[in-house]
Design goal:
The protein is mostly helical. It has 18 helices and no strands. The relative contact order is 0.07.
Amino acid sequence: MKVKLLGKEKQKLRKQPTDNTEAYQLYLKGRYFTNKRSPEGYRKAMEFYNKAIQADPEFALSYTGLAYLYSILGIYGLRHPKDVFPKAESLNEKAFGIDEDLSSVHRIKGSISLFYDWDWPSSERSYRKAIEINPGDEYSHYNYALYLSYMGRSKEAIREMKKAWNLDPLSVVINCHMGHVYFCARRYDDAMQWYRKTLEIDPQYGLAFYFMGHLYASEKNYKESEKKFQEAVKLTGGLTWAVGWLSYVYSKQGKGEEAEKLLQELRKRSQKEYISPLNFATVYLGFGKIDTAFEYLNYAYEERDPVLCTLKVIPEVDPYRSDSRFDELLEKMNLK
């Protein structure tokens, strides 16, 4: 077969991300540990990405990998959003300066627009551009699927996540979030099947237990939810989101002492590390202190907590959607 290409397209095919084998291997290790979705994994990933940049300062993928890692630290509440997202943006701009035709550059831009800037049209444009440049990039389809899900476009989100899965069916991240988009679409049975598929690939994947805890909590099966959140806390090294939700389900079962103990644990940890206000909002929702919970929701808005972009669709907050303060928050975020 002969393929006739224009000059620009031919140049793209010939272009290699780096000629430095060491840098590329370090970059791959960074990706591997990023996908572990654990504090220790993130620490190792950051080390490998920085070493890759040192080995080849013109290797654009290393910058986008590190940018993505910084955004993940913000999304999972491990660092203050205002500390990490500007760093992610700066690193991504560096990568753009090296290679503006790199799909991951546009993918990261889309994620920053989604989780931090809350600029929904810009986010979609960037994700679509990333897919246009490289339809075979599974993580562009994956991230675009999350965007579609959080915008309430569940059918499109499921189709897009399936594209990501077809490209990498053994990815625990993609399998787990396939369940997540079904969960946001209120298709709980389908969601649970995907969470279980994830654990077949990696039985120690804490994020799957965390999402299963949410599913059971939404069904008011607090006993099972408690078990899943306990497992998530153990496997993720004490992820604060899991701690907050474990307190919530303790409260729902009348275990006030256990719930209060976890609240005090979060307060103590907040003296040494960043704890998102959303964690405290979750705890106070469990206590039934709705006014206090909304105060913390608004603190989270002021801090630009990335998880707020999910408020339009996540089932856990359905009991509070009739509150006018919830509507006001969605309107401020242009999610109404």
